[in-house]
Amino acid sequence: MALAALVPAAQAALTDELLEEIFLRLPTAADLARASTACTTFRRVIADHSFLRRFRALHPPPLLGIATIPFMPAEPPHPSAAAARAFADAADASADFLCSFLPFPDRWAERDFRDGRALLSAVPEGSGFRPNDCSPRALYREFAVCDPVH
């Protein structure tokens, strides 16, 4: 009787492992997101942090280019050149890499860029520091996280 109770649990673990291996072979994160909507079992397997770490390690995000004014897209023979060109065409119309929507745009300095977002800090008024001064004496109290593309 005890052995019969262990068999379904072992089968469930085996099934999850097989599902993980199948999902790891999906080519894009969009395909993975679509698969996660199919059923609760798929969602549970895909939403697991260890699985997501493995997927990101195998499928790093594409390099689209350098966020400067103007945007510099990746060029052939880079594997992401086609996606970079499409992004550059869309970014020309909608991206705001200067984050000009922030109040007093000349007070903000870039601190970090990750996952398509920018961490900005505002230089305190009257401090005498320039926006890109990283002096430890400058006390930054205002921060903003911006997604210049959306």
From TrEMBL:
Residue ranges occupied by any F-box domain in the UniProt entry: 14-55
SMART domains: FBOX (SM00256)
A Pfam family: F-box-like
Database matches in InterPro entries: F-box-like_dom_sf, F-box_dom
Name this polypeptide is given: F-box domain-containing protein
